[in-house]
Amino acid sequence: MPKMRAVQVPRANAPFELIEREVPQPGRGQVRIRVQACGICHSDSFTKEGIFPGLHYPRVPGHEVVGLIDAVGPEVPDWKPGVRVGVGWQGGYCGHCASCRRGDFITCQRGQIPGITYDGGYADYMLAPFEALASIPQELSSADAAPLMCAGITTYNALRHCGAQPGELVAILGIGGLGHLGVQFAARMGFRTVAIARGADKGALAKKLGARHYIDTTAQDMAAELTQLGGARAILATVTDARTMSAAVNGLGVDGRLMIVGASAEPIEVSPLALIAARRSLQGWPSGTSSDSEDTLAFSVLAQIRPMIEQYPLERAAEAYDHMMSGKARFRVVLTTS
Questions:
Q1: CB contact at 8 A, 133 and 79
Q2: What is the pTM of this model?
Q3: Residue 124 lies in a domain
């Protein structure tokens, strides 16, 4: 049988292993993807550290996948070999739970996630259910498209559901793997965009990405600064520090909404009075479906939005993962297989 390379986690908190295994064969409703690029996301730590419920090992991480359909299993409509596709966090759904019956596939009670519930994109080949596939526009390289399958869709989808209208004040909290895309999306959507981060050194980058204002939290009170600008209609929280999110709430204007996409297990602390007085609200937003991915990709092409990436070959996945986890990557790390 033909062989392929894969980078797997043998057990929780164990070092990555570069192994050789047989190329998998697609089953009913599946396609096989010859992986060209796979982004490394902070959520890959769920697999590496064993903190996601129900994980089975060994497991190949990776849910920011772009590649070519290589083979098609039975009962796969429309998709053909040779088509370039992407797979993101939403890697399949059951179709019959209460959420799916309402068409809310991202909250499927039995939803699948590449790299967690089945083997993901740290490999030369992977299998995926056809409903998880998004078509990749020819204007995007595979390496640029990969981070858009998670970081891109998460920020774009949250912003377009944040309730703000063009011209209103929208803040992006954090300029990192998610935030540097969030600033670009917010600016191109027509929002009066504020970037918030630690350190004066990020101010120039924020303006280059499209922000009209920059708030340095090491020298300024972010809530006070936002209030002086009129109060934010929405704040997209891309950081993973719950205390920083808590401190942002008072910077919301009337009917302002804190959109939370940075995953943290720590509680956000806010007084009921702070919410009641100006009808403020907090809302989490989980990624999106494959059709949301296609919307994200199309908008990125139209608005000329690209992630800032560092590329590593597949065999250096362990080094690339450590670089991402160190916080020193600028700003997304992508594995390539060629």
A1: yes
A2: 0.97
A3: yes
